[in-house]
């Protein structure tokens, strides 16, 4: 299987050995961040630094002023990498080492945008804003994300792109000094706490036949036993992703749950299709567009929920979260078993031990993913991994070859 590793530009810039080290792993591609959220990242081998703090979401290239003129929502520039075009400089170095570079674009995950434009974000049933989560049902947000997708994806030297968080973001967020784990929230509760009740979404629910006030009250009612007892709703359904949605229907009722799902699925599909179209319009022939995705349409986050039967009608493929046990991989890969022959179904496996990855079982995990229909690998994350982890990756890819 074709293998690619994720990388940040700051992993490469200032480290002349980084491109060759990545190529020596046995990967054919670097998936390089061009637009990314805030993070604090380790650089364990860099000759000049060990920690890079990206203070806010930003583009890692010079944005086109004409493209963003007279727009209220626009991308932020970065100043933590001492290069005017970090993506471009890193792309040239990686290409010189024989690697194909694809851009890695984070879309609906931007805390600074939400802080600067509080009306543009998801608001939960308790009217709490989620600054990190732009509401993708809002026309101004969708226009911003589609424009960003085209600009950040189609950079000089890039041969394809992977769009992350191209859909709903919700409660789950690796926030600084996070203090939200006091009450465990299972999948159904995570969904209920991620549903948006901003004015645009509220109007949409009403147009579908259920007043927003009624839906909001149903969500609050469903959550109250959890807050009181510090335990999640009783398991309902068959488990896994299907069980999560069955639990949502049991908690809200089929009709209210259906209204939420119809509105949110419609907004996600509209964004996904528009983003892919915009990238294709800006890209040369042969430029491949993949979405980081989850096969359960109700899921939120970096791997945004999609309809497996719909997404591959417009995107060239998906990147799916496959870290975990065999059952977890089967749950995420099985819905794509009938993919078109030309579509990419990439198993994304974490190879950083300190982040819960398992680089020493990479060969076995990749083989299992292939048996379930995966035809490509994504390795998260070559820049963050220790030397021992990278040695295990190199040995695993050698065995797979």
Which key terms come to mind for this protein?
single chain, 401 residues, alpha/beta, 15 helices
**Biggest sheet record:** 8 strands, parallel, barrel
Class computed from helices, strands and strand pairing: alpha/beta
Structure annotation, total helices: 15
Strand share of the residues? 15-25%
Give a verbal description of the structure:
With 401 residues, the chain is of the alpha/beta class. 39% of the residues lie in helices and 18% in strands. The chain is built from 15 helices and 14 strands. The protein has helices spanning 9-12, 18-24, 65-68, 86-96, 111-116, 139-153, 187-192, 199-207, 212-229, 240-252, 254-282, 308-311, 326-333, 362-371, 387-400, and strands spanning 2-7, 29-36, 39-42, 51-54, 58-59, 100-106, 121-123, 129-134, 158-164, 288-294, 304-305, 317-321, 344-350, 376-380. The strands form three sheets. It has an eight-stranded parallel β-barrel with strand order 1-2-6-9-10-12-13-14, surrounded by five helices. The protein has a two-stranded antiparallel ribbon with strand order 3-4. Strands 7-8 form a two-stranded antiparallel ribbon. Strand 3 (39-42) and strand 4 (51-54) form a beta hairpin. It starts with a strand and ends with a helix. Mean pLDDT is 95; it is low at 232-237.
């Amino acid at each position: 299987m074709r293998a690619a590793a994720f990388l940040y530009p700051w992993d490469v810039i200032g480290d002349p050995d980084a491109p060759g080290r990545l190529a020596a792993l046995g990967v054919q591609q670097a998936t390089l961040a061009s637009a990314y959220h805030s993070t604090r990242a380790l650089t364990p081998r860099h000759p000049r630094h060990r920690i890079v703090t990206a203070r806010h979401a930003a583009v890692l290239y010079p944005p086109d002023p004409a493209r963003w003129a007279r727009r209220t929502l626009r991308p932020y520039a970065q100043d933590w990498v001492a290069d005017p075009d970090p993506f471009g400089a890193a792309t040239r170095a990686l290409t010189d080492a024989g690697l194909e570079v694809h851009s890695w674009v984070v879309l609906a995950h931007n805390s600074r945008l939400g802080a600067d434009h509080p009306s543009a974000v998801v608001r939960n049933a308790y009217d709490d804003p989620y600054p990190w989560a732009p509401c993708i049902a809002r026309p101004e947000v969708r226009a911003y994300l589609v424009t960003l997708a085209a600009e950040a994806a189609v950079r000089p030297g890039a041969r394809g792109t992977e769009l992350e968080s191209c859909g709903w973001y919700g409660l789950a967020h690796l926030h600084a000094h996070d203090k939200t784990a006091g009450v465990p929230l299972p999948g159904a509760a995570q969904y209920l706490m991620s549903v948006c009740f901003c004015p645009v979404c509220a109007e949409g629910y009403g147009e579908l036949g259920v007043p927003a006030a009624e839906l909001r009250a149903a969500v609050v009612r469903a959550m109250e036993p959890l807050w009181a007892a510090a335990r999640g709703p009783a398991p309902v359904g068959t488990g896994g992703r299907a069980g999560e949605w069955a639990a949502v229907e049991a908690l809200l009722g089929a009709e209210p749950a259906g209204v939420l799902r119809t509105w949110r699925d419609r907004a996600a599909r509209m964004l996904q299709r528009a983003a892919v179209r915009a990238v294709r319009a800006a890209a040369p022939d042969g430029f491949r567009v993949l979405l980081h995705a989850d096969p359960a349409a109700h899921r939120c986050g970096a791997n945004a929920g999609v309809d497996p039967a719909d997404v591959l009608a417009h995107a060239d493929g998906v990147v799916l979260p496959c870290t975990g046990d065999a059952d977890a991989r089967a749950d995420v890969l099985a819905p794509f078993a009938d993919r078109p022959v030309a579509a990419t179904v990439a198993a994304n496996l974490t190879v950083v031990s300190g982040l819960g990855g398992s680089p020493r079982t990479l060969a076995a995990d990749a083989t299992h993913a292939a048996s379930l229909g995966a035809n490509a690998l994504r390795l998260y994350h070559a820049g963050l991994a220790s030397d021992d982890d990278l040695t295990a990756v190199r040995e695993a890819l050698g065995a797979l070859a």
